[in-house]
Amino acid sequence: MLPAVAVARRTRHNGDVDTSWMGRGKCREMPPDTFFPSDGVGVEVARRVCADCPVKEPCLEYAMVNHIDHGVWGGTSERERRRIARHRRLIAVRSR
């Protein structure tokens, strides 16, 4: 897995977010509802799709950069993304 900063840099082009990776995601073959589950079982189903997706890292970074609160992105749940964001903020504060 690439460091988050490297992925975030690669996802930006001319100030705009590069979404060209979206067309290569395994999720394109699935109904969108799969990635917006209402229970833990649904989250696990989505994670299995994401597990070996070739664009898992940029997908997660897209959700993190855009503060997407709902759904499974890059194989992570909403709760996991909140933890990642908290951890990144903590690291940023410590490195000042």
What is the CA-based Rg, rounded? 14 Å
* Distance between the first and last residues' Cα: 25 Å
Order of helices and strands: HEEHHH
Coarse structural class = mainly alpha
What is the number of domains? 1
Please count the beta strands (DSSP E, at least 2 residues each).
2
| Biggest sheet layout | 2 strands, antiparallel
Mean pLDDT: 86
The protein's oligomeric status is single chain
Strand order of the largest sheet: 1-2
Strand portion, in percent?
under 5%
Percent helix range: 40-55%
What are the segments in which pLDDT stays under 50 over at least 5 consecutive residues?
1-11
What sort of overall outline do the alpha carbons produce when their principal axes are compared?
globular
Number of helices: 4
